[in-house]
Amino acid sequence: MEFPDPPWLNQFRASTNSFLSQYEPLTLLLSPLFALLLAQILQSFFLVIHERGLKATIISFVMSSVKLVPGVNKYIDAEKQKIVDKLQASGNRDGWKTELPRSGLGNKVLEQMKDEKQKDVTWQGKCSGTVYIGGNEHEGHFSLINEACSMFAHTNPLHLSVFPSVVRFEAEVVAMTAALLGSKEKTSGGQICGNMTSGGTESILLAVKSSRDYMKAKKGITKPEMIIPVSAHSAYDKAAQYFKIKLWRVPVDKEFRADVKAVNRHINKNTIMIVGSAPGFPHGIIDPIEDLGDLASSYGICLHVDLCLGGFVLPFARKLGYPVPPFDFTVQGVTSISVDVHKYGLAPKGTSVVLYRNHEIRKHQFVAVTEWTGGLYVSPTIAGSRPGGLIAGAWAAMISLGFEGYLENTREIMEASKSIQKGIQDIPELFIIGRPDMSIIAFGSDVVDIFEVNDVMSSKGWHLNALQRPNSVHICVTLQHVPVVQIFLKDLRDSVQTVKENPGPVNGGFAPIYGAAGKMPDRGMVQDLLIEFMDSSC
């Protein structure tokens, strides 16, 4: 038995058909498709605004439109090239070899290398960070690690059965580093493990890759996102690009520490990890690792702590009585740590360590290949072959110095840092950025152009780091600076006075470029400048 449609339905059907009858059938067919397309365009537009912000999106659109005007793009490219040429530090490459010499030089090549080395700048005591070992490069600790590296220059830990010596050295470097960062404490879980890498960037890359894959296995996250404070190292940007991870940048608080509330606001179902630094590279300030650990634990996500600078200072500074907040595996929620041995660990360049709370996480770092005709293959880090000489050099550095050696080095570095900090505070035109926790002191000025001050310091032989947001400069204090603290402060006072009395760009200086880059609203153009510079430099 069939029931008739209700009157209201018949009336609705009739009115709808009457309304639609005035349109062409093709129009009725295409309208939903156009509506769907428009909805997708609007969704993409609002997504871009959400990711980049309204201001950045508008600026990008305007600049893209302006570049369509005939001649504008050519003019912009020419101006960019002028800046790139000015940034070029290596000068022209006349005389650089482009092919093998017909006849080899034999041992005479060493004399040529010595001649080339003489062209390097005088770095002893004059560079922010850069060289962390104190003294002369021909004696003492320098000489020791050079000999250690030379002794094992031919080795490669990829060949486990051939070079068990460097395999042992790596395992012991990792274990000794882990012990400094809480592996012996019950709260660490007793499973801290890791590997040596080529540097802090590789350590961070591996930690991010491992966290991504671990969270995919644990929570099924296939569109990974990570959250970093604006002060976090640029290696996270590299990791995001390499491993296809959406990167969210959050502001720091008034003390230039990671804003935990801002981090919390960005966490969602796709978040795989958050990040803290101890300390951060720009200002030498330790993020609130405990608060970040609580956040990571509550959401069941990873927390990586960047200890590339602090790993071989903070444990000893704490022992010396300096106020050091918790930063290592004793903090619940910390799942991985990166720490450079080639900085304050005083090991040869190219040595870092990445550590994990347990083996379950670290297993996602490894790459195992079963179908290669060359045999079964497994590799722990990004590189396959690795220089055993550097591993040996790191082991030699740690064993030769021992706990007491690092303790004394830290005492000297922290005392020098506090002296420099006080000296800068005594210069009325300058102010310290935040409250430095370690040996990096950043300073700015509301009176003089800080980049011009940096240029004058450069003319006196100093190599400091220029920072942005806010415009500032920092010095990363090493053992090289311990004997020259007062020289640095005098040169800084004199440089400030020079700029105050004679403001304006220094001939050959980079202040105008840094200043312009900081004010340039189109960050894509700044990015293009950096890429052009790198492409012409290597």
TrEMBL record:
Listed InterPro entries: GrpII_AminoAcid_Decarb, PyrdxlP-dep_de-COase, PyrdxlP-dep_Trfase, PyrdxlP-dep_Trfase_major, PyrdxlP-dep_Trfase_small
Compartments where located: Endoplasmic reticulum membrane
Pathway: Sphingolipid metabolism; Lipid metabolism; sphingolipid metabolism
Membrane topology qualifier: Single-pass type III membrane protein
Cofactor annotation: pyridoxal 5'-phosphate
Endoplasmic reticulum as UniProt keyword: yes
Family (UniProt): Belongs to the group II decarboxylase family. Sphingosine-1-phosphate lyase subfamily.
Protein name: Sphingosine-1-phosphate lyase
Gene name tied to this protein: DPL1
